[in-house]
Amino acid sequence: MLYCILLITSISLAGTGIFLLIFWMDKYLKSYSMTFLFRLIEGLLLFFLIPAVMLTAYYLQLGLGSVEPLSIISEDFQMMYRFQNGWGNLFLHYRNHWSIRLLKIAGMIWLLGVLIGILRGIFANYTIQKTLSTQISCFSKSEIQKIRETVSEAQFLLGLKSFPSIMLCLTLDTPVLYRIFHSKIFLNRENYTAEELKVILLHEGTHYKRKDILFKNIASFISIIYWFNPIIKLLVKEFFNLCELSCDERVITMLTKEEKNTYAN
Questions:
Q1: Residue of 45, 49, 46 whose CA lies nearest to 8
Q2: How many Å is the maximal CA-CA distance in the chain?
Q3: Does one domain contain both 44 and 92?
Q4: Do residues 96 and 127 both lie within one domain?
Q5: 83 within 8 A of 7, measured Cβ to Cβ
Q6: Is residue 154, in this structure, part of any structural domain at all?
Q7: Sign of the torsion formed by the C-alpha atoms of 138, 142, 148 and 154
Q8: In the predicted model, is pLDDT for residue 105 greater than 70?
């Protein structure tokens, strides 16, 4: 637990510095595209997952039982193993020191915050899933034909082998892409024009192609793990904002001049 707290704190501080640099680039240097900045933020999200990867590898190593881990693991892994055991010996030697007791208290508070975040996430996902599964409406026959034609066009423009199913949920405020696997696009009304429907499907199809739902879930996971860092909330907000802007930037390149005017409105 103590090593985990130190590792998470270190990654949190380093990641915060990197994000503030990216945030400054976004606000004051206008020479970078939204897609480039979005990819930087995606890489930073993966950087924040380092503690989970290192701790998983460490505990898997301990689970090898009687096998001597240092004789079969790579050089980098051996260094990490010795580093972790060094911290463990230090914590054991000074286990009654006030700083170690303070770290233990901080660890319990952090763990409590993580559990609360997980429970809130489960409840939010349950609410969304219940709404989408119980409020589904049916398209009219004419609308179904229009959707089929537009899906074929959007799929061709995006270069996709498959395309998410199209559903109708009148309680939504805007169209939305739902689920990482067996994805679905939910429309919030069915009286869209052919041009409007095309840009909507291109937008949501771009999210689908880039696996944005996966990274949005990673961002939510990171906001739970690093709940104590207020900059993480800004990071997640900026990620969602750049996600939409970079998607718009991509969609615009696939539209005609008239369709661009429709998309802008």
A1: 49
A2: 75
A3: yes
A4: yes
A5: no
A6: yes
A7: negative
A8: yes
**Number of neighbours of residue 61 by Cβ within 10 angstroms:** 18
Do 249 and 34 contact (CB within 8 A), yes or no?
yes
Q: Say if residues 186 and 132 touch (Cβ distance below 8 Å).
A: yes
Q: How far is CA 184 from CA 20, 101, 103, 170, 205, in A?
A: 35, 49, 45, 15, 10
What three-state secondary structure class fits 165?
strand
Q: Which residue has the tokens 């559990």?
A: 115
pTM of the model: 0.79
pLDDT of the residue at 194? 86
Please tell me whether residues 180 and 87 are part of one structural domain.
no
Give the model's pLDDT for residue 210: 93
Q: What is the pLDDT of residues 193-222, one digit of tens each?
A: 888 899 999 999 999 999 999 999 999 999
Q: Which domain holds residue 28?
A: 2-63+73-133
Given a contact cutoff of 8 angstroms between Cβ atoms, the answer to whether 238 and 247 are in contact is no
Domain boundary among 173, 188, 210: 210
Pull the structure tokens for residue 1. 């637990």
